[in-house]
Amino acid sequence: MNWRNQLAIVAVCGVAVCSAVYYHGKYAEERERANTAENNLRLANDTITDMARRERDAAALDAKYTQELSIANAENDSLRQRLAAGGRVRVAGKCPAVPATTQATSPPGVGHDASVELTASAGSNVLDIRAGIIRDQTALRALQEYINMQCLK
After folding, report:
1. pTM for the model
2. Would you say 134 and 73 are in contact if contact means Cβ atoms under 8 Å apart?
């Protein structure tokens, strides 16, 4: 074999090696990009799944407390109708303990466990206050449960 043939063989092998190195590097970059795209897609799908679950949980929480509030409002409306029809609405309560010296000098009046009759407007005001308290407590419980379910996980 003469030196020209040897040179041609070396040149062909050099071109083959350079091509292999070039294509190997090119495909490695493409594989890396494909892996990155797959990871991003997996992350996006996981995020969407998590968001859908959280949305379902929040909707269930909303339905639970909306129903609770609806029942309490219906009870309050029933009490309001009874009061408007001239009926009586019992408000349970106790007066705070009064010192013995005050009890001895106070005029006879309502005892600690006695019933108190309210006027219609006062009764309506009490029911308005009751409705506000129920609404606020329900909203507070709903928010606390939402925080425990969604934010503290």
Report:
1. 0.56
2. yes
